[in-house]
Sequence to fold (384 residues):
Amino acid sequence: MFLRVINIVVVNSHLCIGKLFMEQAEFLEAYKDKAFEHYYDESDGQCRSSYNQGMLFEFVSRIMRAVDVLRRPGGLFLPRKTKGVNSLVLSESEQRILSAISMNYVDLEKEVILFKVNPYIKVFIDCHGEIKPSNPYLLKGDAINDSIAILNKFVAVVREKISSSEFRRNMAAHTRAADKNYAGLTRYINDLFAKYSRLLVLRLDFSYRKGEFDIEDLSRPNDRREALISVTDDLVRHRIELLNHLKYKCPGLEMVGYVWKLEYGREKGHHYHMMFFLDGAKVRQDVVIAKRIGECWVTHVTKGKGIYYNCNRNKEGYRFCGVGMISHSDSQMIANLKEKAALYLTKVDHFVSACMPCGRRTFGKGNSPKHDSVVGRPRKSYPV
Fold:
């Protein structure tokens, strides 16, 4: 049998992010930062960072680039005349779609059980499972034409679904939830600075030792789903116990606010990102206090099962530092806190967030403080 050799030619190979990604570029940057997980290495007792697929970044970024193409009108995978009989000519837009469909969807189906994903991503995954498009680069002879036909069907079905009124409602609700959390958090920060002249801001990550919640070692989606249900109560209980201990049994802490976000990653498993706001007029030494809070998580709350990462210890390494002592008049630090740290905790949900059973929350914050009715010069206000 004659085997045709395929020369792959890319047309219009200039890489462009696309309208959808340009609209959400800042969110994507925060998402990428989260893909670098900080974790505790038990082999030598050191805190380390690693990049992995813990938050589906590679899967999501490829699919969203393909979606950016599919949202635009125009034909794809159309017949073309080529210079060589054995050449397959593909545009850069078509390359994006092939990049997204050529990933390991067995791994993706296993991982996505633990996440709530953007509706665009869900449609893409569902259509991939239904139509099963293939990569024509890997085929020979007439199978290439069959593959192109299936790709065209895939494109048509995805476009039909993302153009439906039901999809638009789902997308609006998904976006509204992430935007609501971000707006609520920035208002909360404004309210705290309207009440307190300066805040000592702490950021810690709380997680568990290897082997405590072995979800990542499970390969079957149903097993992972059942394991998630079984660990949910512990995750919620530990968070409540930590916050109650800090609020009611640590009066010298001077905690005036907090925010928490539950996430999942391959190295750290389920973990919390938390920020604590302390009255900066009464306390200082953020690194020391953050360490004490971390030790409380390890010894008091999780009874030795937990570990923590003290972000304040390495705050000099942050390009846009939003932790430590922040005065109400320091507009740059407050901007870093709201536009970087707060966005990091909330806006990534535009792409992916941890999925919890029974409608359990993955984000929360304290109540805004009551303002003293005193006469004096009004405190500077900040836009949300």
User: Anything to note?
Assistant: The chain has two domains: 51-163, 196-365. The longest helix spans residues 165-195.
